[in-house]
């Protein structure tokens, strides 16, 4: 549901430029340590450094060993708090960028362009397009943007549930696949032939297609359960009457 100001807001050429920038910014296409990395969400978001938790003295001097910011051997609520703390900069940065892009009309352009595509595929509005793209690179950014859309009334509860299922299946698919899964496609057998016969592109396509399949299976589940709830409510109303 959108407000009257959103319904009458005109989509201009600037809105399409803002949408194009948002797609490139959140897609990971420019993720690099080169100068153009400043236009990529993950590159700008950065990462925490490492801290020293011990040193090993060798014949050549002192050699320091490092670990992540969360330290070594953590457990329980304290370790969980530190993990959650690492998510805060990502979420705040993603929401800040979305507010800027929304000001320049990126969400309006996304709504106009993507609603005819996403409505038939998952029955969700087109203004979820940026959150969809962001979720392929960062689960935190995708979740934060989806929550903002829900809180601002751009998504109904049902639409948010379906879209969440899309994100939950193979979360951050592009980043996770290319950082870990893609290495499988470089493995070779003893005779020098590739151990995996399919292509990387095919693997990405299969993951992407089944994200839509998962979202639509959840739509079926909601249709069944919501129908049962409606019948139960009607029966309860009749009993009270």
TrEMBL record:
What organism, scientifically named, is this protein from?
Enterovibrio gelatinilyticus
- What stretches pass through the bilayer? 12-30, 81-101, 165-188, 200-222
Q: What range(s) does the Nucleoside transporter/FeoB GTPase Gate domain occupy?
A: 85-180
Pfam families assigned = Gate
Metal-binding among the record's keywords? no
Entry keywords, A to Z: Membrane, Transmembrane, Transmembrane helix
Name by which UniProt lists this protein:
YjiH family protein
Record keywords: Protein biosynthesis included? no
């Amino acid at each position: 549901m959108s407000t009257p100001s959103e319904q009458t807001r005109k989509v201009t050429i600037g809105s399409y430029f803002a949408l194009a920038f948002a797609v490139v910014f959140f897609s990971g296409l420019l993720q690099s340590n080169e100068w153009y990395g400043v236009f990529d969400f993950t590159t700008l978001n950065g990462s925490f450094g490492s801290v020293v938790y011990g040193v090993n003295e060798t014949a050549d001097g002192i050699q320091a060993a490092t670990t992540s910011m969360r330290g070594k051997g953590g457990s329980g609520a304290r370790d969980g708090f530190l993990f959650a703390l690492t998510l805060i900069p990502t979420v705040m940065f993603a929401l800040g960028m979305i507010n800027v892009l929304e000001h320049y009309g990126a969400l309006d352009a996304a709504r106009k362009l993507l609603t005819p595509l996403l409505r038939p595929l998952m029955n969700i509005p087109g203004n979820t397009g940026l959150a969809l793209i962001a979720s392929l690179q960062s689960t935190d950014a995708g979740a934060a943007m989806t929550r903002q859309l829900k809180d601002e009334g751009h998504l109904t509860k049902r639409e948010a549930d379906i879209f969440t299922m899309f994100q939950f299946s193979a979360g951050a698919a592009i980043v996770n696949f290319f950082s870990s899964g893609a290495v499988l496609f470089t493995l070779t057998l003893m005779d020098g032939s590739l151990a995996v016969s399919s292509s990387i592109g095919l693997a990405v396509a299969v993951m992407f297609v089944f994200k839509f399949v998962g979202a639509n299976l959840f739509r079926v589940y909601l249709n069944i359960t919501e129908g049962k709830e409606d019948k139960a409510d009607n029966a309860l109303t009749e009993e009270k009457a």
